[in-house]
From TrEMBL:
Taxonomy, superkingdom: Eukaryota
Keywords for the protein's UniProt record, in alphabetical order: Protein biosynthesis, Transferase
Name of this chain's protein: methionyl-tRNA formyltransferase
GO cellular component, one term: mitochondrion
Domain Formyl transferase C-terminal: 261-361
């Protein structure tokens, strides 16, 4: 008689002995990726740059357990305080349902400010507590920094450090006509050790496109900075993060705060190209300004380099005339270049087209032989008191 061949390889029927021969699995086999501790983050910022960095950070929940925001309080601006400004970071934080705390109005008060829970003085500081600043505009005191381990104090700075240490790196990048820029994630040091001078944990380089404006370059750098920040935090989780000391500062350019003096156009020393760069760099905050012989200031809006042949315009810098074909004021600048300005705003008046301003200037007797003179002299005198 032929023996019956069982379809089961380990016996005549499935049972306990067959089940014992099956490979054993565990929960670790189903999820072999290691779980890394996530950070409790205190995030300090204020403007659109810090908002875009935060969006990149918030979109990487594998690196954070919690994000607590601290930002500037509401402020009233304008001559009579009629306009209320709200921190863009506050609005974004609320929309993301993150806890938002407001710092004091003044810098002396901020030095006494204490971060909210769970951040408090402790020795040693918890390794999972992290402070991040991005375009914050305030310097953290030694007490603030002592709440975090040295490697857990990070700042996102929009330049290729040590180039452009200071509060206005994006503006100076455009002002100087740089062809390359970048963003760094650096370790914050105490004030006496240097501002923007800490070791670099991560960086990203990028070209500066022709015609780049402050807002466009700011947004590009902020997104890249947020991505670099997330990459650094992931490396910190796994112990792979490495910092590099900054090279000596030497004669590298600095990036001081932009003042009203930077908005004054001096046609005797500035070419049309440099004036256009200045407009792209700072006009979002401070419009370019010149002045008239009447000692009135005059804002120049949407300037461009005039490339057409110039007829009957004196080459003396600051000399201007109305150009009917382009409906713009054309102004002689240094290096025999010419600037075109389609919109102007005279002190005490509203923004107007060049043609309308020109007709008004003729009525006031400012036009002689078809030309008018612009000078930086009175603008310096008028605006220097506002610095």
């Amino acid at each position: 008689m032929l023996a019956h061949k069982s379809p089961f390889p380990w016996g005549s029927r499935p049972g306990a002995s067959w089940a014992r021969r099956l490979p054993r699995f565990s929960s670790r086999c189903l999820n072999s990726s290691p779980v890394h501790p996530r950070f409790k983050i205190l995030y300090l910022g204020r403007d659109e740059f810090s908002c875009l960095v935060l969006k990149e950070l918030h979109g990487a929940p594998d690196v954070w357990e919690s994000i607590t925001i601290a930002t500037n309080p509401n402020e009233r601006i304008g001559r009579r305080g009629t306009q209320l400004t709200v921190s863009p970071l506050k609005l974004l934080g609320e929309s993301l349902r993150l806890p938002v705390h407001l710092i004091p109005h003044t810098k002396p008060e901020f030095r006494q400010w204490r971060p909210p829970s769970p951040f408090s003085p402790s020795q040693p500081p918890p390794s999972d507590h992290l402070v991040i600043t991005a375009s914050f505009g305030r310097i953290l005191s030694p007490v603030h920094l002592s709440m975090f381990a040295p490697t857990r104090r990070l700042n996102v700075h929009p330049s290729l450090l040590p180039i452009y240490r200071g509060p206005a790196p994006i503006q100076h990048t455009i002002l100087n006509g740089d062809k390359e820029t970048g963003v760094c994630v650096i370790q914050m040091l105490k004030f006496k050790e240097g501002i923007d001078a800490g070791p670099v944990w991560g960086s990203s380089r990028m070209p500066v496109n022709d015609g780049a404006s402050f807002t466009g370059l700011r947004d590009t750098l902020a997104r890249a900075g947020g991505q670099s920040l997330v990459s650094v935090l992931r490396d910190m989780q796994t112990g792979k993060a490495i910092s590099t000391p900054q090279s000596p500062l030497g004669l590298l350019p600095h990036a001081p705060v932009i003042s009203v003096v930077d908005s004054i156009v001096d046609f005797s020393t500035m070419s049309a190209a440099s004036i256009v760069r200045r407009h792209r760099a700072i006009s979002h905050h401070k419009p370019l300004v010149t002045s008239l012989s009447t000692e009135k200031t005059l804002q120049l809006h949407s300037p461009s380099i005039f490339t057409e042949p110039v007829i009957n315009l004196t080459q003396t810098p600051g000399t201007a005339s109305y150009h009917k074909p382009t409906q713009a004021m054309i102004i002689s600048c240094s290096d025999n270049s010419v600037l075109s300005v389609p919109l102007l705003k005279q002190e005490g008046k509203s923004l107007m087209k060049a043609k309308d301003w020109w007709n008004g200037a003729k009525g006031l007797g400012l036009v002689h032989n078809g030309e008018v003179r612009f000078t930086a002299e009175f603008a310096h005198r008028i605006l220097s008191g506002q610095c």
